[in-house]
Amino acid sequence: MIDFKGKTAIVTGSGRGIGRAIATKLAAAGASVMINDLDAAPCEEASAAIPNSAALAGDMTAPDFPQQLVDRTLERFGSIDIIVNNAGYTWDNVIQKTTDEQFQAMLDIHLVAPFRLLRAASGWLRETAKKENAEGRRVMRKVVNITSIAATDGGPGQSGYASGKAGVIGLTRVLAKEWGRYNINVNCVGFGLIETRLIQPLTADSKLEVKGRAIPVGVQQRVIDTMTALSPLGRKGTVDEAAGPVLFFCSPLADYITGEVLIVSGGMHF
Questions:
Q1: 161 is annotated as an active-site residue
Q2: Domains of the chain as residue ranges with CATH
Q3: Which end of the chain is more exposed for a tag (fewer CB within 10 A), N or C?
Q4: Catalytic, out of 89, 161, 182, 256
């Protein structure tokens, strides 16, 4: 049994989907969890359903919000032991139709936001580790950044998304080297086709509201069928199946693993 009693986790984008499944599994194993989502309603709903959790809704791409999230977590729970950078969405188009705004939005949520959150937490993490090391104690802490097979294999129509998700792999490997001395494991989990609203069949009504803009979300059914066929397992993954490998990286089972990327795609490659 994995036991996270006495540990506190921040999970961004945890009001729905994979993030909520990750938060649920962490809490079930005993962790205190700070729930975050862009939208207040799913954020509060998730917190109400997940024991020993708190919620702070807000935009992870706002320059000052990551520091607010760190401060609120420390005020509420007194520590930060696990950070899962999960918040994100897709905004796809072929490159000649991709605007600067669209490309930058993908970098902001998938790369800049994790950078800012980890920078905001770095002071507390470093000072706490220094004290523990001085006392002769090794306390392992965990960062898991969520990436995608779009980053490792490339995804047509996803120049911005794939670039942001590839960038977070670079950030992961840098911090694995910088933060090893502080007993912090920093790893990535990269997803393939997971059953969330982002890969629902595309319709005229499938939209995601972000900063007042309606972003089309979903995938054409023929593309879903083709991608599913590329998986040796022949199916999409569930959010629980996506959350399991994240739980592994957060656990003592992964105390000697850092700077790695674990692909969770059912064996699918583009």
A1: yes
A2: 8-196+237-264 (3.40.50.720)
A3: N
A4: 161
